[in-house]
Inverse folding.
């Protein structure tokens, strides 16, 4: 492991009722979070390749944990997202280095597919900062029923010299989708959009 | 369908000169506008809601234009965008999903036909909740230098029967972008992805 991990967390949200109506089957989403040391905290470093490699190993680790938390096979995951919060002594670009170059491939491997861009967000913040992980359908970004987001936070992270990295997966869209648009049954799954 | 009842509108503009590295020749700007409106469906389950998307279109366009104005008035400087919603506690996540179509189309129209899907996040939350609005390049979702996010929120919103609807725009890549990947200069501009 290249990443120096302080904590790993898993969150599972299962929604059984929404607006006092039963959701059947319940919608479920899971996020796996790693709190790691930021090797570049406190100084400007031009070459971010160490963080890029950390992104690759965290992609595999967090995707496996999030899918396991849902108790399903990777292929049954319907939507996904990723996000990172950099502590006070880090730089936004540190989050970009973890998230964008190499984290996606092992996530897609864990799911069997994933033609769509993995939606993402990033920020700098203190311990307890809320991280909103955007969610989109894994094979077709325009599936409107699956546009969503999941908030994760960890009371004691990220500390100034840490980075908090999250991968989220679901087995469903929103609880009572009814705003139209492309549906999951219409997905072609070729271009990642429709 | 109900009228759009607006209580507040907020504009936030961040000007980023550096993040510990070389000072940018032109500061990177990241801006958001959000409206606090009454949720016409708060407190009860309403099956047919999609018409409210139409009602929100004029508000969306007005907000998109106001956001461009806050960034100097020239739509050609806008390179990234995103959208989001926070639904008050008496509402449902699906009410926030009503913002996808009007928010997205409004920005595309105001920017003269941007090609990429508008990334988004949303949640149900209380007063003072914060939301990370994801941001990507307006013409090609995979442009890595433009992946970003802006945090929004307001101390007194959303009340239980309100919704906070947000649009975000940026004027370029992250200030010290060096995480590689597709660059804006390499955009083919055919599919909204690359």
């Amino acid at each position: 492991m290249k990443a120096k991990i302080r904590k790993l967390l898993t969150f599972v949200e299962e929604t059984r009722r929404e607006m006092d109506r039963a959701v059947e089957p319940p919608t479920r989403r899971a996020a796996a979070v790693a709190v790691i040391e930021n090797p570049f905290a406190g100084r400007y470093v031009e070459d971010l390749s160490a963080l890029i490699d950390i992104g690759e190993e965290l992609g595999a680790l967090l995707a496996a944990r999030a899918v396991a938390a849902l108790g399903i096979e990777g292929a049954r995951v319907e939507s996904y997202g990723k996000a990172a919060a950099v502590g006070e002594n880090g730089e936004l670009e540190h989050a970009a280095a973890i998230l964008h170059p190499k984290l996606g491939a092992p996530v897609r491997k864990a799911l069997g597919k994933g033609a769509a861009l993995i939606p993402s967000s990033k920020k700098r913040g203190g311990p307890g900062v809320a991280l909103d992980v955007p969610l989109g359908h894994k094979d077709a970004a325009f599936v409107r029923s699956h546009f969503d987001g999941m908030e994760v936070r960890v009371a004691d992270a990220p500390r100034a010299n840490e980075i908090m990295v999250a991968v989220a997966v679901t087995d469903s869209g929103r609880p009572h989708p009814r705003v139209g648009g492309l549906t999951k049954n219409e997905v072609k799954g070729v271009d990642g959009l429709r | 369908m109900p009228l759009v009842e607006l209580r507040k509108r907020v504009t936030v503009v961040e000007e980023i000169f550096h993040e510990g590295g070389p000072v940018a020749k032109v500061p990177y700007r990241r801006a958001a506008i959000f409206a606090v409106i009454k949720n016409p469906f708060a407190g009860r389950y309403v099956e047919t809601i999609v018409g409210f998307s139409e009602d929100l279109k004029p508000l969306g366009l007005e907000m998109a234009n106001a956001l461009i104005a806050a960034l100097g008035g020239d739509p050609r400087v806008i390179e990234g965008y995103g959208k989001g919603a926070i639904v008050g506690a008496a509402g449902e996540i699906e009410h926030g999903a009503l913002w996808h179509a009007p928010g997205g189309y409004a920005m595309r129209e105001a920017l003269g036909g941007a090609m990429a899907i508008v990334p988004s996040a949303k949640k149900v939350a209380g007063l003072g909740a914060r939301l990370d609005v994801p941001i990507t390049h307006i013409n090609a979702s995979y442009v890595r230098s433009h992946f970003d996010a802006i945090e929004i929120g307001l101390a007194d919103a959303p009340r239980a029967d309100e919704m906070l609807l947000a649009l975000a725009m940026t004027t370029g890549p992250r200030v010290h972008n060096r995480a590689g990947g597709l660059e804006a200069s390499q955009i083919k501009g055919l599919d909204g992805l690359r």
